[in-house]
Amino acid sequence: MERPVNRSYRLRGARATLAQEMAYERLWPKYGLEPVGVIDPAVIFPDASRRIMEIGTGMGEATAKIVASFVDTGFIAVEVHKPGIGALMNLASANGSENLRIIEEDAHMILSHSIPDGSLDAIHLYFPDPWPKARHWKRRIIQAQFLELIHPKIVDGGYIHIATDWIEYVEWMQRVFSESTLFEGGVIARPEWRPISKFEGQGLRKGHTVTDMKYFKK
Ligand SMILES: C[S@@+](CC[C@H](N)C(=O)[O-])C[C@H]1O[C@@H](n2cnc3c(N)ncnc32)[C@H](O)[C@@H]1O
């Protein structure tokens, strides 16, 4: 797959604070992975008990906490927003985390070209851009083609865990998953280990209901 015409993210200015710029310079050699050639999670984290990709880590507060909570798990964060990557690296470094690598690229490209089949125990997708307007629905990351893309990358018994505060997107996702033969699952209780992210906090303050969903590879 080439870079999708309908990007699932908004191209925002790459304005970063000085702290984020400095974190980027200092910490990219430790945490960064260039999107070149094969990126095999088993080679990056040979001793990990699980290997999980998180797509769209935003400003990284929730990701950094999850990474620090599960030190035996290797995490690969994929994000296109550079200031957010700097912020995540800063937090991970402050926690002394060794079990995180970050790729600055569209997840569609990375999954298509870099990640070997059967190499991920799970994918985390927390608060993907909801694209509320009908003319933007084609930009939602959960689409039939996306399920086809991730399915081979996940090990047998593996899953995708999704959280969203946009009720219409819950219905959209349930429809896309139910029309696919590749996954089975549905709504789950919020796991107590999933911290509130910046985006989630904004939704909660607006009175939105948050839904967690888990779909296992069939
Ligand atoms: C609404 S924000 C949520 C961020 C974070 N998970 C949170 O809960 O605060 C969605 C994030 O996903 C990123 N994103 C969207 N599509 C992406 C893609 N195809 N590849 C990588 N990152 C993507 C955006 O840049 C943005 O930072």
- Strand line-up across the major sheet: 1-4-3-2-5-6-8-7
CATH architecture: 3-Layer(aba) Sandwich
Give the name of the CATH superfamily.
Vaccinia Virus protein VP39
Strand content: 15-25%
Overall strand count: 8
Report, as a whole number of angstroms, the end-to-end distance: 23 Å
Profile the largest sheet: 8 strands, mixed
Mean pLDDT: 95
Helices and strands, in order, run as: HEHEHEHEHEHEHEHE
Structural domain tally = 1
State Rg: 16 Å
Give the class-level CATH name: Alpha Beta
Question: Ligands bound here?
Answer: S-adenosylmethionine
Task: Give an overview in words.
The protein has 218 residues and is of the alpha/beta class. The protein has a single domain, classed as Vaccinia Virus protein VP39 (Rossmann fold). It contains 8 helices and 8 strands. It has helices at residues 18-31, 41-44, 61-69, 82-94, 107-113, 144-150, 167-178, 198-205, and strands at 32-33, 50-55, 73-79, 100-104, 120-126, 154-164, 183-188, 211-217. Strands 1-4-3-2-5-6-8-7 form an 8-stranded mixed sheet, with helices on both faces. α4 links the parallel β3 and β4 (100-104). It is globular and about 45 Å long. The two termini are 23 Å apart. The mean pLDDT is 95. The protein binds S-adenosylmethionine (SAM). S-adenosylmethionine is lined by residues 8-9, 55-58, 62, 78-81, 84, 106-108, 126-129, 141, 197-200.
List the helices and strands and how they pair.
Blueprint: H1 18-31, E1 32-33, H2 41-44, E2 50-55, H3 61-69, E3 73-79, H4 82-94, E4 100-104, H5 107-113, E5 120-126, H6 144-150, E6 154-164, H7 167-178, E7 183-188, H8 198-205, E8 211-217
Helix pairs in contact: 1-4, 3-4
